[in-house]
Amino acid sequence: MPSFPREEIEEMFRRFVDANNLAGETGDWSKMPELYTDDAVYTWNNGAKWEFCARGRQQIAEWAYGTEMDGLSGWKYPYVRTLVDERKGEVIGFWRQIAPMKGPDGQLYEIAGTGGSWFRYGGDYKWCWQRDFFDHSNAGHTFLEMAGAGDLNETMQERIKNGSRMPGWTKRSEFDWYETLEDREDE
After folding, report:
1. Which residues contact 28 (CB under 8 A, 6 or more apart)?
2. Does residue 32 lie within any of the structural domains?
3. What is the pLDDT of residues 3-57, one digit of tens each?
4. Helix (H, G, I), strand (E, B), or coil: what is residue 128?
5. Contact (Cβ atoms closer than 8 angstroms) between residue 162 and residue 169
6. Domain enclosing residue 175, as ranges
7. Model pTM?
8. Is residue 28 situated within a structural domain?
9. What is the CATH number of the domain that holds 39?
10. For the chain, what is the domain count?
11. Per residue, what are the HEC states of 22-40?
12. Is residue 23 part of a domain?
């Protein structure tokens, strides 16, 4: 696994955060896939039985920043902390998940718990691997709270009904996300 200068990795993360923040402001996530290599892998856990996996920039565009962002217009995901390992070319960034509307308490809805992304840098200012993590139970609780208050839009209601039938979702028993991370033996 090649190592990269820390400054280059930090610049990549700065570019990613800037694009992420702009996408959150505008609701247009279509430019985000440009920050990934052609063969990048992007995964996250969807609870006890399901994993999400997009392989390649096209699936990342269509699924991770397409169908998975449907109904989340106006949501923001600001990064609040970052850890960089320049030897491995990896970054962990911790983020928040904040809705664009206020709940009955007058505060913006926010998914509680820890959210973050673990990235592997592929050079040329692109990620080659990403694994998101967040509190799935808290996400479900927040969406149910929003639905109960009449604040969950129809698109998100439909997504919840579709459940595991969303593109990219794989049964956990048939998928080992760790296998998507190359060069494990050096850990």
Report:
1. none
2. yes
3. 799 999 999 999 999 999 999 999 899 999 999 999 999 999 888 888 999 999 9
4. strand
5. no
6. 6-95+115-132+168-182
7. 0.90
8. yes
9. 3.10.450.50
10. 1
11. HHHHHCCCCCHHHHEEEEE
12. yes
